[in-house]
Fold this sequence. Notes:
Blueprint: H1 2-22, H2 32-52, H3 63-67, H4 70-85, H5 92-98, H6 102-113, H7 119-139, E1 141-142, H8 156-182, H9 187-209, H10 221-243, H11 246-268, E2 271-272, H12 274-291
Antiparallel strand pairs: 1-2
Helix pairs in contact: 1-10, 1-11, 2-9, 2-10, 4-8, 4-9, 5-7, 6-8, 7-11, 7-12, 11-12
Amino acid sequence: WALTLLLSVALYGSHAPLLALCKVDGAIPFSSAAVVVLVELTKLAASLLLLLLPRGERRCPSWRHGAAFALPALLYAASNNLAVHMQLFMDPSTFQVLSNLKIVSTALLYSLLLRRGLGGRRWLGLLLLLAAGLSYSWGGLRTPGSPAGRQLHITPRGLLLLALYCFVSGLAAVYTEAVLKAQELPLSLQNLFLYSFGVLFNGLGYLWSGAQGGFLRGFSPGVLLVVASQALNGLLMSVVMKHSGSITRLFVIACSMLANALLSVALFQLQLTLLFCLAACCVALALHLYYGAP
């Protein structure tokens, strides 16, 4: 279990550095929508292979089992597209900082929809997790010689889209957890349902985006590595959601910031700042408050 969490942290943390290595002249040469579709296809193929492995007696699922995953897949697809579209109404730095608010929305929905009280100690831990995300996003890393701090810019429409994004992202995580735990089916079969809808909805999103130059335009071995790592991370995260929950997922993402920072320092000679140290301390304290003994 610990290995699963550590590997997921490493995969999450390596995503942004790997994407940066794929850039050509400072720009991403491929369609991000195509990458998402390919990731979903890879997860679908892996789930099918795992399902075909010889096992004991299996229950025959009804169509209702599969249909239950349509909404989570739609929510995830909507969240991915919102994350791209909303950046038209704010600068990337603002998105990076304010998207951490989905920690609060996920925790609220987790508490309300799953009816699980968190208690003051755990809420404090989650607020520290939010503080860690804000600190790191605000200026945990910087290029040597660049000025400290940053200015944020967001339009009123951007604020509305941000609120919608945080709600949809949180709802996707919590609803997926509820469906995974409610069904007594193998996880590989549940993933097969989820990723089938994922391919459908994200495929429609790719067609709607009107990407030019073909599906595999700009792909390279580095991009395929991104696809493979994201697919593996998605499969690992389904294990986390099935056997732990969406709050654990938040902690995995928070810890991945630290992995991201170390990789960025090693690969791009970026510098750690005091805000990174603050973020690391907040994550450590949040872990203690949420999972430690009272």
